[in-house]
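User: Thanks for the earlier help. One more: Threonylcarbamoyl-AMP synthase. Can you show the sequence and predicted structure together?

Assistant: Of course, both are below.
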Amino acid sequence: MILQPLSTICRSFRNIDTYTTGFPRGNAQGLTDIFRAVKHCLPGPYTFILTASKQLPKQCTRYGTATSKYASRKNVGVRIPDDPVCQAILEKLDGPLISTSVKSPKENEWILDPVIIADVYGPEGLDFVVDAGVRVADPSTVVDMTESAPRIIRQGKGPKQPWMIAEDDDSAVEE
């Protein structure tokens, strides 16, 4: 099984405030209210890496197998997706939804068919699959918010915002 980073899918900014230490107050480019900028991106195709709080469920901060010691993560990816299926699931939950992307164990591609996901990962301990049909897999843009400036670590469906730094913008960070 290919381990993917866990993402905590939140229903609202209140969930993000509960499960993380929040968004940074400003950045080196003079943006003083990153939270206001982020609010314009969510719900949407972005995952923001933030420092985890103690309220985050342990499943989000531990990784490894049952036979090995769990390693602890200090950060967690948080999302508020604009996907209607995900939004419907979140409406029924009291807390965040913990998820990961599903890649094929033999190929470097995403598994899009829920029946194949169940067949491949059911024996590995998969709890359930929501069958919403075959879906388009457009990965989110992942932005690391744990450093001095928000840095895109994976460009996905969400466009680069002016306050984000792409990997090829390194000279802009070191001023």
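User: Great, one quick takeaway?

Assistant: The first helix runs from residue 13 to 19.
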